[in-house]
Amino acid sequence: MLAVDLRNLTKRFGPVTAVNDLTLQIDSGEIVAFLGPNGAGKTTTIDMLLGLARPDAGTVSVYGHSPADAIARGEVSAVMQNSGLLKDFTVAETVEYTASLYSHARPVNEVLDRAGIGAIADRRVAKCSGGEQQRLRFAMALLSDPRLLVLDEPTTGMDVEGRRDFWSAIREDSKRGRTVMFATHYLDEADAYADRIVLIRQGSVVADGTTAEIKNLASGRVVRATLPDADEGSLRALGGVTSVELRGDTVLVQCTDSDIVARHLLTRTTARDLEISSKNLEAAFVALTGDAADNGASR
Amino acid sequence: MSATVQQSPAHAPPHERQVPPFGGFNLTALKLEVRRVLRNRRTVMFILVFPSLFFLMFSASVRGKGAESARILASIMISMAVYGAMVGTTSGGAAVAVERSLGWSRQLRLTPLRPAAYVAMKVLTAMTLGFIAVTVEFMFGAAMGVRLAPHVWLLSGLASWLCSFVFAAFGLFMGFLLPSENVMQVAGPVLAILSMFGGLFIPLSALSPTMRRVATFSPVYGVGQLARAPLIGGATAGAVLSVVVWTLVFGAAAMALFRRDTARV
Predict the structure, then answer these.
(1) Domain ranges of chain A
(2) Which CATH class is domain A2-215?
(3) What is the DSSP track for A193-231?
């Protein structure tokens, strides 16, 4: 069953097209990073997914429901970067208040523990650090035991320790089969926590695949091996090879499918010391979202 | 681990995924909300301490032990209870502005709470604050020597409290009009001026005929008249009309702004 089904979403703010004909499907159980530079349309897309903004065109469906219905039923919940908390409530009271709004909610203590803030339940929200407040929002999001959890740049403004604690809570929770979609502009977060990365730029999806596929898209991989007297022609003939370079006894093959090249080298030749390297996600990100990929079509 | 897997979200039984009744409105939230508001020192100062201090100030000039003095004292107490209830209900309604400026409304949009249920909870919180303000002021008055017949305590108290509904509507209106954290810094002085010209701080009998005519147009006028009526009379059709008309005016204005607000999404 599709957790998220966004079809041809468009949202304009005056002359600015924030989201441009965006289509995205997420299966139940996937952990998807929604990655893009600031202003790429991540938050606007999430706002439409949650019913906080109305699309100018296109449709949104969350587990087969409209956003408002999905929220009312507790199918989806979210941790947003700009949602506020009331300073005069304690941590536990904030969760208790939110729990009372659902027809069914998990026990307050359970979600506090799962978010890692059971020890500060009686602390006033005003006295909590940014990271603790964010884990409080996470605890609130867990109340309805949602099938889909949406996180909008959840660690913005947190220190290193706060980020680590936050993600370990999320990671622990996601073992239970929850669908998670998180927006981020931190590449390492996308790389470390997502099964799938959706790259967005100027309101459209520019790349969509596993972390490995995304890295491949921009740079491909380099297979390097020691192979005296390599046959350059037969290497070039392999599928997905973009260039072959011979440096003395070393051969360097640039390719989009390193498996084919590696298998060939190891089974059909006397190659040894084989190495496969890929450029990191950062390079892919810059290549796909930076000005290099800008055809001047929009902006 | 198998136990946790069984309660995984994908396996949650469909009957647990229901839309809550009354759009999420509930008494637990209301109780937590009132407790939270009373934790705020500034709110407590304005709705409980100041009216009592004003009572002491205004009653300082009342001399003698006669029936007339006792009536004046009681009248001042009732006026101050009305003032406390006004400030309480206004700040309760105006909380919509504070909560929006803090982003709490956005957080609530991620829950099943419907906008109308949210406003209903704000109104009930406001009325609870009004009730507490009247009760505390009456207890303070009793401690300071005000003596009234039981039915006067009861009727005056009820009138002070129920009529302050006008200001719950006024607070909501201000809250939707001025979505800022400092809305009470505007609404507070407005209430003081309305009270001044509406016969709460200065008895109507002490005003010039022109000012007395002006006073009848203040939203405070009818509330004050009806609250003091069990003691000194004055429950005129004009007083009732004042409460009804101002409730409708503020209520309709708040409703219009609320509609504009929720339509924007």
Answers:
(1) 2-215, 221-278
(2) alpha beta
(3) H-SEEEEEETTEEEEEEEHHHHHHHHH-EEEEEE-TT--
The Cα B141–Cα B147 span in angstroms is 9
What pLDDT digit, counting tens, does each position of A103-127 carry? Answer: 989 999 999 998 889 999 999 999 9
- Residues in chain A closer than 8 A to B4 (CB atoms): 176
Average pLDDT on B101-107 reads 89
Domain map (residue ranges) of chain B: 21-264
ipTM of the complex: 0.87
- Summarised one tens digit per residue, pLDDT across range B69-97 is 899 999 999 999 999 999 999 999 999 99
What are A's interface residues with B at a Cβ cutoff of 8 A? 28-29, 50-54, 69, 71-75, 77-78, 80, 82-86, 88-89, 93, 96-98, 100-104, 137, 140-141, 145-147, 176-179
A219 band by pLDDT with thresholds 50, 70 and 90: low
Give this prediction's pTM: 0.81
CATH topology match: A2-215 vs A221-278: no
Question: Which numeric CATH code is attached to A221-278?
Answer: 3.30.70
Report how far residue B127's alpha carbon sits from residue B86's, in angstroms, rounded to the nearest whole number.
10
**Closest by CA position to A239, among listed A213, A258, A211, A217:** A258
